[in-house]
Design goal:
Largest sheet: 7 strands, antiparallel
Helix content: 25-40%
Radius of gyration: 25 Å
Structural class: alpha+beta
Number of helices: 15
Number of strands: 20
Distance between the termini: 5 Å
Shape: elongated
Strand order of the largest sheet: 17-16-13-14-15-12-18
Length: about 400
């Protein structure tokens, strides 16, 4: 590889920016292209509520969060793990801290200062940014083809890193449009599916209108699939007009989504009173209530809020609501039937994408020498909690190293 080796990076998210940074440090000239007017738009959106950079749990536990793709993602993380990400952040002048949940955040809890510092360092190092350049594939002669506001243009590069994102939040640039150009070159991606997503539930109109937006806190979600996989966790989620969404639902979304795909729908259970034993719940429900309604009785004896009480009415008819044993059992295991995941463009992230079998250990496409892939466009998924961002950046590191090594071999 010579100083003049030029690499094109397509995609201005964390994976692409990290790849550009590592490439220029290795002596390449780097041009980064993005379809949007500015880079890092999804990154900034993710940081609105406090940018979750990574997680401080031990490495083995961290790697386990990638489920069926652990074997493929773990080698990437070993090149750029949580400690490396924190050290990198500190080198930008951004201090971090570990929250009570183990999640790692910037001290200011914002994405914008980090992105500004990062872009300043990238520009100072020589990375050239080209905005409003939408990649549409290759010319017959191998040149990269872009649409721009003025006209189309073509670019030649010695190597290419694709970090185009998945298909979630398309208005921020990740629209999955890269699937077509790769398919034209013989690379067929696994279908892009919603991950960390909400699900539809057939609420009654009364419940949907009255309780949309209401949180359900300190409940336990229990999910089992046909193959014996089991998810059980305490947390919270939000009722929506169409169903449910939120952190607890997102954590189980891969299991729920795959079970729905297999059998058409699935039923999870909710423990609405996880801090109460079944016996204590039954005793409270069966306590004489006199002339009070069951709703008033449950509020008095169990401190049951309106949304939990309404959930009971969603699954129990009037006769069942008079049966203390049925009510008590349902409070501890309320069936929640999920019909379908919400559309991919509403999801936090996506599953599916370029298959790891089509990539070598440096993330180069086996059928397209000199073309590397990184980030969410790869076929993996992870829960929220810093796992998505860390793996995206790690894949950018590995793709850059792979491209640098390949260019050296070509020299």
């Amino acid at each position: 590889m010579t100083k003049l080796s030029n690499v094109a990076v397509i995609g201005g998210g964390p994976a692409g920016l990290m790849a550009a940074e590592r490439l220029v440090a290795a002596g390449c000239t780097v041009d980064l292209y993005d379809a949007m007017p500015s880079v890092g738009r999804k990154f900034l959106l993710a940081g609105r509520g406090g940018l979750n950079l990574t997680h401080a749990e031990p490495f083995d536990a961290f790697a386990s969060r990638y489920g069926e793709r652990r074997a493929q993602v773990e080698p990437l993380l070993r090149r750029f793990d949580a400690d490396a990400l924190r050290a990198w952040t500190h080198a930008l002048g951004i201090e971090t801290f570990v929250g009570t949940s183990g999640r790692v955040f910037p001290r200011e809890m914002k994405a914008a200062p980090l992105l500004r510092a990062w872009l300043h360092r990238l520009r100072a190092s020589g990375v050239r940014l080209h905005m409003r350049h939408r990649w549409t594939g290759w010319q017959d002669d191998g040149a990269l083809r872009f649409d721009t506001p003025q006209s189309g243009t073509t670019v030649r590069a010695d190597a290419l890193i694709l970090a185009c994102g998945g298909a979630s939040w398309p208005r921020l640039g990740s629209d999955g449009a890269w699937v077509g150009p790769l398919a034209a070159r013989g690379v067929t991606a696994a279908p892009l599916r919603p991950a960390n997503c909400g699900f539809d539930v057939a609420w009654t109109s009364f419940f949907a209108e009255r309780f949309a937006g209401q949180p359900l806190k300190s409940v336990v979600l229990d999910v089992r699939d046909r193959d014996g996989r089991h998810f059980r966790r305490k947390g919270e989620f939000v009722v929506t007009s169409t169903g449910v969404e939120g952190s607890l639902v997102y954590a189980a979304s891969a299991l729920l989504r795959d079970e729905i795909a297999a059998i058409g729908q699935t039923t999870a259970t909710l423990d609405l009173l996880p801090d109460w034993t079944p016996e204590r719940v039954l005793a409270a429900v069966a306590h004489p209530r006199g002339s009070r309604s069951m709703g008033s009785h449950l509020k008095s004896r169990l401190n049951l809020d309106a949304v939990r009480s309404a959930l009971l009415h969603e699954v129990l008819d009037k006769a069942a609501m008079q049966d203390a044993a049925r009510v008590a059992a349902t409070l501890k295991a309320l069936p929640l039937t999920l019909l379908r995941p919400r559309p991919v463009d509403e999801a936090i992230s996506t599953a599916g994408g370029v298959r790891f079998d089509d990539l070598d250990e440096g993330l180069m496409l086996r059928g397209l020498p000199g073309v590397f892939c990184a980030g969410e466009m790869l076929d993996w998924e992870a829960p929220t909690g810093g796992y998505l961002l860390n793996a995206c950046m790690a894949s950018g590191v590995v793709a850059a190293e792979g491209a640098s090594a390949w260019l050296r071999r070509q020299a």
